[in-house]
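Justification of computing resources. Each target in the renewal requires a structure prediction run like the one illustrated here; the chain below, 149 residues long, is used simply to show the kind of job we budget for.
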Amino acid sequence: MKINYKKLINYILIPLILGSIVGLLTSGNYEDLITPNFTPPKILFPIVWSILYILMGISRYLISDKENNNKAITIYRLQLIINLLWPILFFSLKWFLFSFLWILLLIIAVILMIIKFFKLSKTSALLQIPYLLWIIFASILNYTIYTLN
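Resulting C-alpha cells:
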C-alpha cells in the first residue's frame, strides 16, 4: 500500500488540533477539584492525549480508502465529537455526574468504532485499544471525582 502522506498528516492533525484547542480551553479548570490518589500527574494528560489522537488519525487513515467505510467514518466522527465535548462538560461546566454518563456514551461509541474499523482493517481497530483503555480509566477517575466533589 502506497502511503499518501498528505492525507495521513491531515487525518492526524484533525483530532490533534481539535483536542489541543479543547485542552487549552479547559486546562485551567482542574486545580480546585478534589482528586483521588490514583490521579495521574497533570503533565501526563496532554502527552497521553497527543499519542491517542495521533493513533486515532493513523487509524482513520487506514480505513479511508476502504469500500463500505461510511458507517465507520460516521461513528469515528461521532465519537470524536463526544470526546471533544467531555472536557467542556467536566472541567468547564463541572457537571461531574453528567460527564460520567457522557463518557460512558463515549466508551460505547469507541467500541462500536473499533468493531466497524475491525471489519475494514484489523490494524486500524487495534490502534484504538489504548484509547478505549484510557477512556475506561478516565471514566473511573470521573466517577471518583464526582463522589469526592
